[in-house]
Input
Amino acid sequence: MDNLSRSAVDVWLITGATGLVGRFMLAELLRARQHTAVIVREKTTSPLSARIEEALCVFEENSQFGRPRLLAGDLTQPGLGLTERDREWLEHQRLGVIHCAASIRFSADSADGEPYLSNVAGTRHLLDVLSRCSVESFLYVSTAYVTSRATVQGAPVFHGPRTETAIAKGATGGNDYESSKIVAEQMVADCQWLGKKTICRPSIIVGDSRTGYSSTFHGFYAPLKIGLEFVKRFGFNEQAGAWFRSQLGLNEADKKNFVPVDWVAKAIVQLALHPELQGSVYHLTNPTPTTCIDVQNAVQRTLAKFAEGIAPPPDSTGHFREQLGVYESYLNNDPEFECRNTRAALPDLVCPKVGVELLEMLGDYAISVNFGWPKLSAQMPTYAKIIQSLTQTSEVSVGADAELLELNVLGNSAPGALHFVRSNNRWFLAKGRFRREQIKYRMMTTAALLASCISHTGDTNDTSRLVESGQLVFQGNPSIDRLVFINDWVQDLKLLAPLRSENRAP
Output
């Protein structure tokens, strides 16, 4: 199945783009040359651009791609905390939406605290903003554990296979996270004005099946992280290994359903880019579950690499179990998940088997990066600041007969495609909706070279050399010499984004 979208979507809006699944999905969409925008919460310690750089830099070892439009916002706030300009911009787009943002806190501090604040109120706020937009497709990333459970001897259990159907009214989760996702999923299902609604339900997400990379470390990683602290303190030998296995409390015959994040992201993006597959519920689950004995063996083999010593003393047992208690639902036996819809829609996208070897590789990676601490820092380069200043300039509405210039910007910190319209003999960013046949000219270059053109004070020969060398690609038939046409456009960009000398590209 190809990666070309056949939908009428102009922009894919992603929530949760800095999370684990979100960053993989964003990278997949950018590789597919999709126009994207992300809602990212502002932090005093890190600008939006730096957070997106941190999320994407790991994917650009062998290739470079564009960057999304950054919308500063907060799903927990009414109106998402967006500026009037950003809300207006969204209202002028034909949107595809992938709602991935979520709190994974298992136990709520209060009835209106996390995870309900992000997962329920956040979904409500998002739908409220989108009610004034044109939404062609809406994909909600839920969880496979949203169906009702019975309680046996105080522990939640499933009865029968879980089907790819809408949630039954009155369904309850095994913890506050699952309960909040049930409410949010029903909210989406009940929203009549949305476009095609697709529910994606992954099971327990682990790191990249190829590299082990992960930006978050929950679920499978919890006993590994806690166990590592005990290993550092007490050492590890055969006796310690037996003690550790007993503390995990796993029934070796039970099974867990792990799915690698790279597979989950590919599946969601494939569903997003093919409208004919939308409108259903999909279990993004592993048809080959992992046995708990494999989980125990992988954790024990990983820990055994780091120390030799004596078994932990008996008085540490209670503390160990207390730390693992919050992840109790992750340690229970998983049900069987029906995934007929997923197999039928994505027959060529096979979920990797998560066995001892893959789990051990994931564990090795987690320990090698100290479970993600300290966090990776990716600073926005100077040329990226120049490009960002361009994307924040004034916009001009597009008339029915207007001719547009589409600029595709590649490389680190690139914003993807930008559209320009000529008004009063000057080029401006285009505002509003437009027909694709209105695009008369296309240009493509890297973010660094574009920034150099905008900030350079030299003559027109600089732009000419880029065109002649193929570093700036132009398509179209202007009424004047194409080099003059391109240089006039570059000069207008300099007027659009005047830059102080300290921001000039090197």
In short: Confidence is low (pLDDT under 50) at residues 1-6, 499-506. The chain has 17 helices and 19 strands. The two ends are 42 Å apart (CA to CA).
